[in-house]
Design goal:
This protein is mainly α. It contains 7 helices and 2 strands; from the N terminus they run βααααβααα. The radius of gyration is 18 Å and the shape is elongated. The termini are far apart.
Length: 120
């Protein structure tokens, strides 16, 4: 199974290489990454997904499904914005402010192209 690890935006690129090339390094890194922040996630299914991603990478098929869901969401927003300049109508509102973190996350994970490629 293909795994997505590291990438141009990952801090500590050397750590990514260590995880990939040395099983002992991967185990040590996994132990550090199962952080208290992950353990505080209340939903056990979401917590397990985060722990798995932090300790073993993300399967390519899972990543493809996630990108497809993001693309669907951006397409729904794009359709909604065809009738008005802002999410809730003619005026800038909390609905537009609410979406800002989502757009910022797309920038951080190098998927802003899903939004940038759209007219507007």
């Amino acid at each position: 199974m293909d795994q997505v690890r590291g990438g141009s935006g990952e801090r500590g690129g050397e750590a990514a290489v260590l995880r990939q090339e040395h099983p002992a390094g991967a185990a040590a890194h996994a132990a550090r990454r199962s952080s208290p922040e992950i353990e505080r996630i209340p939903d056990p299914h979401i917590r397990a997904r985060w722990r798995k991603a932090a300790t073993g990478g993300i399967a390519a098929d899972d990543l493809k499904r996630s990108i497809a869901r993001l693309t669907e969401m951006v397409e729904r927003m794009d359709r909604a914005l065809q009738d008005a300049p802002w999410r809730a109508g003619e005026e800038y509102s909390l609905a537009d402010i609410d979406i800002a973190p989502f757009v910022q996350r797309l920038v951080r994970i190098d998927l802003f192209g899903l939004v940038a490629a759209r007219p507007g």
